[in-house]
Amino acid sequence: MFYWIRFILMAAVAFATFLICVIGCVDAWHRPEKAYVTEGKQTKKLWLFLLGLGTLVGAINVLGFLSGMLPSIMFALLPAFPGAIYWFGVKPAIEPYGTGK
User: Fold this and answer.
1) Are 21 and 55 in contact (CB under 8 A)?
2) Which of 64, 70, 76, 79 sits a CA distance of 20 to 30 A from 3?
């Protein structure tokens, strides 16, 4: 019984971290390059790479859970780090620049 509770909770964490990175990647894609450099938040290419890598790892986690595997919690939380840094550190700083359109 506890296996299924743990499985469902870890699958929810994996799916949430995947969504954080996917939405962050889409948001980073729409922000202008000059916003990142002006605010001193590295470059847009670096953030797209980090969030894309987080999205890839998150997708592997989600697919692993859908196939019935139970990866470690550290591997499930790994995509949360670039996503959280982007959402709480970078996005608030570059949001005033709009979407570049």
Assistant:
1) yes
2) 79
- The pLDDT tens digits of the residues spanning 4-49 come to 888 888 888 889 999 999 999 999 999 999 999 999 999 999 999 9
Task: Quote the domain boundaries for residue 63.
Answer: 27-96
pTM attached to this predicted model: 0.86
* Inside any domain, residue 37: yes
Nearest-CA neighbor of 76 among 57, 90, 50?
A: 57
CA–CA gap between residue 44 and residue 15 (Å, rounded): 25
State how many domains the chain has.
1
Could you give the CA distance from residue 100 to residue 19 in angstroms, rounded to a whole number?
Answer: 23
